[in-house]
Design goal:
Length: 465
């Protein structure tokens, strides 16, 4: 009830003080109120969810409710925030306090520089302007272009609210303040060059005009590595798999070491994969190989972590436009059908543990897929088979137990070149496949999203998106 004491009661008091009729004959519009001088002494953020629901601040974000404290506020006719005519309910205005919500349409970077970060209160015979920094909503990270970059590679972070990014902190406390590029108009991305010497994994944090953005803790994170072709993890090798000896040196010449060709050069030399066909797969060793027991990852991802906060990542390099085929990943070696829409990828099939990645379908639109270098693909665990049933409340231990109880707990990947009958009702016909497509660094990572608190006393309450 402490929060109610500090937030609800002042609002009720303001409401009572402002209960007057809405015509020009009441006291709000009389000369005494319209000509009395205005003074603002403090701005408060009103947030009943906060540990401090009536907090003094020197900035506000779009959509937030603020309380203006001062004198002579009774009678205010207009409120302009960054020059934007902002609605307020005068039922919540007294002589010493008023409530105003910062409208989501308030301009920030594109407003008149002379009006930016200013609030103007206007009466018939008086007005008052004071400074208050206005920020967009808290910045958020939606994806990272390359989460296992080599030194010298460019990393681009996508999301919202990234205007005027000035400082980036990488895992291990390594700071970047020079060479940062960002989208100052829409705030949808910032980029930096990966420095040498980053040995720890975790989140990227970036300071910008709207606060601090924090990525999920999957950047430079290798502790959940399943297979990297260079010593982490062990390949399986039998009649249904390609020979690990057909792994190739990094074709992008970025210094990554060996990687997996989706289709080995020996198969491409013989014509590749025909339409409506598939080749062999790439798998880990399976049952008796210790790294295939993912309980080893509990230090990175605690056993009780919700599957909604876990993802599978891999890196891909596609130098030529790809217009056919898909990659099918499976948590167990139990596939009997292959391709999009099969039972193994269905949430309704009790033995379903697979997912299909169709790179040339973007937001339901056919878009040839090509990369200029290595990029990271992130697939939530909740996209795999039965784990799509989020209501079941699966946790990481369920994934580990399901794999360990399987007849064959190999993790694997197939390139499947079959027609795709997509959920939009369209059928995308397959074509012969004969080109380079390269994969590296299969890994399990934490993918919880964060909104960083604006206030130090609430740093332990970083919230999931």
């Amino acid at each position: 009830m402490k929060q109610l004491k500090y937030f609800i009661l002042p609002a009720i008091a303001l409401f009572a003080a402002g209960m007057t009729s809405c015509n020009d004959d009441d006291a709000y519009f009389e000369d005494d109120a319209q000509n009395s001088p205005i003074k603002v002494t403090q701005i408060y953020l009103e947030d009943y969810k906060s540990s401090v629901p009536d907090r003094p601040v020197d900035f506000a974000r779009l959509g937030q409710l603020i309380r203006i404290e001062g004198q002579g506020l009774f009678g205010v006719r207009k409120v302009y925030i960054n020059g934007y005519d902002t609605y307020f309910n005068r039922a919540y205005v007294s002589d010493k306090s008023m409530l105003v919500t910062v409208n989501a349409k308030t301009p920030i970077t594109d407003c008149d520089p002379q009006l930016r970060d200013k609030i103007r209160l206007v009466k018939d015979g008086a007005e008052y302007t004071f400074d208050l920094t206005i920020r967009a909503a808290s910045p958020t990270v939606t994806s990272v272009s390359n989460t296992l970059p080599q030194p010298g590679e460019t990393v681009t972070v996508y999301g919202t609210g990234f205007q005027e990014t000035t400082e980036i902190t990488l895992p291990g406390g390594i700071k970047i303040t020079e060479g940062i590029q960002c989208d100052n108009e829409e705030g949808e991305w910032f980029s930096f060059t990966m420095p040498a010497g980053v040995t720890e994994g975790g989140s990227i944090e970036a300071v910008n005009a709207n606060g601090v953005a924090k990525s999920p803790a999957y950047f430079n994170e290798r502790r959940g590595m399943i297979l990297d072709c260079d010593g982490a993890g062990v390949f399986g090798n039998w009649s249904a798999t390609y020979d690990p000896a057909e792994c190739v040196d990094d074709p992008a010449a970025s210094g990554r070491g060996l990687c997996i060709p989706a289709i080995p050069a020996s198969v491409l030399a013989n014509g590749g994969i025909k339409a409506n066909a598939q080749g062999n797969g790439w798998f880990t060793a399976g049952n008796d190989e210790p790294t295939d027991d993912w309980a080893r990852m509990y230090d990175l991802i605690p056993w009780n972590t919700s599957t909604t906060e876990i993802a599978f990542q891999f890196d891909v390099y596609c130098p030529e436009p790809l217009t056919t085929g898909l990659l099918e990943f499976t948590l167990q070696n139990n596939l009997s059908n292959y391709g999009f829409g099969t039972s193994e990828t269905s949430a309704d099939y009790s033995s379903a543990y697979a997912v299909c990645w169709i790179p040339w379908l973007k937001d339901g639109e056919f878009t040839p897929f090509k990369t200029d270098g290595w990029v990271t693909v992130t697939i939530p665990v909740t996209s795999f088979g039965i784990y799509q049933n989020i209501k079941e409340g699966y946790v990481f231990q369920d994934v580990v137990n399901h794999r360990n109880a399987a007849s064959y707990r190999n993790f694997g990947m197939f390139f499947v070149n079959k027609d795709v009958e997509y959920t939009d009702g369209n059928t995308y016909a397959s074509q012969p496949f004969n080109q380079g497509l390269y994969i590296d660094n299969w890994r399990i990572v934490p993918c919880k999203e964060f909104t960083v608190s604006d206030f130090p006393d609430e740093e332990d309450n970083e919230t999931e998106e």
